[in-house]
């Protein structure tokens, strides 16, 4: 399942872009380097949030390996 949000860039600093969602109640902060090239203040974007089960599995495996190595000391 995925969810799409619409937001516009409110302002951009050296390292951070501030995106106001269309509900006018929430603001997201993104590293500037994640923005598409040419993105600028006032531009609107669709943000897609989608579960990534493969990444969840990889993270769980990484954590399990780390715990095992700590227990073995």
Note the topology.
Layout lengths: L1 E11 L3 E6 L5 E5 L12 E7 L2 H20 L1
Antiparallel strand pairs: 1-2, 1-4, 2-3
Brief description of this entry?
By secondary structure, the protein is an alpha+beta fold.
Task: Provide an overview of this structure.
The chain has a single domain, classed as Beta Barrel (OB fold (Dihydrolipoamide Acetyltransferase, E2P)), CATH 2.40.50. Helix content is 27%, strand content 40%. The protein contains one helix and four strands. The protein has one helix spanning 53-72; strands spanning 2-12, 16-21, 27-31, 44-50. Strand 2 and strand 3 (27-31) form a beta hairpin. The N and C termini lie far apart (40 Å).
Helix tally equals 1
**Overall CATH class:** Mainly Beta
CATH topology: OB fold (Dihydrolipoamide Acetyltransferase, E2P)
- Which consecutive residue ranges, at least 5 long each, have pLDDT under 50? none
Question: If strands are numbered along the chain, what order do they take across the biggest sheet?
Answer: 3-2-1-4
What is the strand tally? 4
Q: What is the CA–CA distance across the termini? A: 40 Å
The biggest beta sheet is recorded as: 4 strands, antiparallel
CATH architecture: Beta Barrel
Helix share bin: 25-40%
Q: What is the chain-wise order of helices and strands?
A: EEEEH
What features would you highlight for this structure?
alpha+beta; 4 strands; elongated; 1 helix; four-stranded antiparallel β-sheet; 27% helix; 73 residues; OB fold (Dihydrolipoamide Acetyltransferase, E2P)
């Amino acid at each position: 399942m995925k969810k799409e949000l619409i937001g516009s860039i409110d302002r951009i600093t050296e390292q951070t872009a501030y995106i106001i969602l269309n509900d006018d109640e929430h603001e997201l902060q993104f590293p500037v380097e994640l923005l598409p090239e040419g993105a600028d203040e006032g531009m609107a974007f669709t943000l897609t949030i989608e579960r990534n089960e493969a990444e969840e599995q990889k993270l769980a495996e990484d954590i399990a390996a780390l715990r095992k190595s700590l227990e073995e000391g």
